[in-house]
Amino acid sequence: MNRLKKCMRLIPLFAVMAFLLAGCGSDKLSALQPQGPVAREQLFLMKFSLSIMVLVTIVVFAIYVWVIVRYRQRKGQENKIPKQVEGSHVLEIIWTTIPIILLLVLAVPTVYYTFKHSADHRADKNAIHVKVTGHQFWWQFEYPDFNIATAQNLVVPANKTIALELASADVSHAFWVPSLAGKVDANPGPVNVLYFQADKIDMFQGRCAELCGASHALMNFTVQSMAEADFQKWVDKMKSPVTVPADAKPGEALFKENCMACHQVSAQGLGVGPNLNGFASRPYIAGVLDNQDAAKKDDNLHKWIADPQGQKPGTKMPAFGQNFGGNLTDDQINQIVKYLHSLN
Amino acid sequence: MANAHAHAHAAVHHEPKRYTGLMDWLTTVDHKKIGILYLIAGGFFFLIGGLEAILIRTQLMYPDQKIFVGDTFNQLTTMHGTTMIFFAAMPLLFAFMNAVVPLQIGARDVAFPFVNALGFWLFFAGGVLMNTSWFLGGAPDAGWTAYAPLSSIIDPDGKFHGVDFYVLGLQIAGIGTLIGGINFLVTIINMRAPGMTFMRMPLFTWTVFVTSILITFAFPAITVALIELMFDRLFHGAFFEASRGGNNVLWEHLFWIFGHPEVYILIMPAFGIISEVVSTFSKKRLFGYSSMVFATVLIGFLSFMVWVHHMFTTGIGAVGNSIFAIATMAIAVPTGVKIFNWLFTLWGGNIRFTVANLFATAFIPTFVMGGVTGVMLAVPAADFQYHDTYFVVAHFHYVIVGGLILSVFAGLYYWWPKMFGRMLSEGLGKVHFWLFFIGFHLTFFPQHFLGLMGLPRRYFTYMPGFGLETGNFISTIGAFLQGLGMIVFLINIIVTARKQKDAGNDPWDGFTLEWTIPSPAPEYNFKQTPLVRGLDAFWKEKMAGNKEMTPAEPIGPIHMPSPSILPFVMSLGLFISGYGFIYHHYIVSGAGLVITIISMFLRSLFDDHGWHIEPEELEEHKGGKA
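Output (structure tokens, whole complex):
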């Protein structure tokens, strides 16, 4: 039985190895692969607190293993009554004092970084300011400095402080981009703040981290970092008037008729649903379906418009496909798809 | 005058009213039977909660699965959490409190046997009420924490009442828990045998004492929160609605002002069980008893000043977060004291690895791992990453399953003979232990990494390609193993129930008073109240060469409380009333409340002086009959 116990203790070890081989997850999503200063400092805190705790754990486990091996009952000892010990003042002082010292050591960086990472950068003139609003089940991003609004894909310049102000239009959500920064709640009441910075040009995964209803698990978003000049280009493009190619005109008419009540396609329009200006360049449809794979993206968007509930249960968008109780034929939906995918 | 009447009454009606069969269980006020009721009901809800867990893990076994999605999945997680905390863990602990505490302090019953029965039936009514929601339009789906305003959304079609079931179920069960806590507080303060000073109480009794204090102070907070949520949902109140001047963060505060002490309410008795089991099976008295008591009281005290660590990302601000971070870290110190005291109780001992002790010794490293992540979580800036992810899920399952449930099993194997007069099978018990223990670590260890790798909790799916597949798969396999372990345990119970009573008074060579009386204990517990001459009273007598305790009184008639159906009827009234509120049929609510109030009048207007077991009868029952 003892041998079994030893083997069993190896199981977590194997699990650890399995994860190390997997490389701590993806550098797009994992808090263990930070891509900016805030997430990096938070990983430092994790490692620092873990090291202190591993120290304690090693001591405890060593005593534990020694005790259960050394002092287990052996044959013929069934009636042996061991020496009774009431306690030991020296030992008790030791294992009260040492943890207090260890915790004081941990407390210093804890307080330092708690203040640092709660800092309000809204007044920082060099930062990019974004107003984030959580909706069931999508994210709205407004750039008050540039008078533009977008959704689902937060576009930011790399190597610059991004200062967010967060609120919610309905229930509580939480804004989390693990590889860039820890999360903060987006509440329907008073606003919260958060800041981060991306070290490199990449696309990072964001997740909603506060239970917000049926499709909480599908309230994904992305943070796209780009070079400063590209960011400026993106801003300019968002502000320039939308040009629709001729073959997408019928789709535009259908869109105006069926979708405009909720969706804006303009520089700063806000609506019940996400602003779709620049939709074709977004990585995902509704945060979950691929919008870049040329072979799949049209089908995905068709699927979404025809039957949103099937893709994202609880979404407020009604079904438009005739098979799902809507009023649009497959052809009409295809026209809308063509229109939306022309919005670069 | 009333007293004289009582004596005359008792003398005339020498034969008490006694029920048999089902009526016996519905009317019992005997703490031992109520303990068994708590065990059966808590065990039943534990199985339901476990089944929900298996379904959750099945959905998450592979990415992009569509077995339970959206609201269905949210209902599963909400009901899993709520059921496990309120309807499984709490009653299982109340089972031990009832079965053990009066015996450990040398009492014949709890202070208020009637209230004790009422507490059980209220808990049971609340649990059943909430679980019927599965068949009545859908279970609550706003998480066991029921954060507003998600929890205050009302279905415009009026078909879905999930969160109403949550509010009323918890409210009714909560009254039961609250009066149960008060009852044990009074019992431990007033009913101890002569000579049992506070510092001679067994550690399990101590932890129940502290837990009862926590219940008494923490449950009113959830009561207030639930009433506010009830008003928001039923009567269009706006306590938590920002657009009408309310504040949703208020719910979070109220919930966690209750919620944090609640987890200590759960873990305290677990500490007590571990202390008893570890000391008995190493044949050593507990190392550092007085520091253990001090640590228990200190943890209980601190548990009220750390609730904001559940809300670091709510936006409290750096000052508030830092203060609560330091307070949280402080709890690690008394908890560490306990761990080392257990280790040094084992040190130099003569350790028997019975199944009870396997569970108890497995508790120690498992709980340390949960404690380690607890300290890590106390660092707010790092918690911005951990919060609401699988890292937190892993942490609280390490402390609640690895801490509480392992010790519940330790306690069950340890006290089963005292409760039922039969020994659970050690062979099957070992299979149960290994399956459950290995399954537990397989399930929850990988979840630490899943959380850090970007998987939030309460997600019904995750995208493939982000490194989350392996961990989720291992975790699900582990859950299945735990399920297998539970099946073995159920087989063990059935096998044990079918055999002859085989437990002696003192099968484990115990230290405390419960082992001085027959197994199972007779309904009056102690024929003569024992005289306690020190800590570990029975052990002290054994060491002095005595086979039994010195009695503190001569043999005489023993006063017993009468059985009563009123606790059941009172709870039934509130149960009916609950449905009335949920469906806005206030006549039904009124009728239910009338049933309860009439029962309360009946209880108050008619004196019931109980009955006596005469000395001759005690001699007949020498063998001990439950």
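The two ends of chain B are 34 Å apart (CA to CA).
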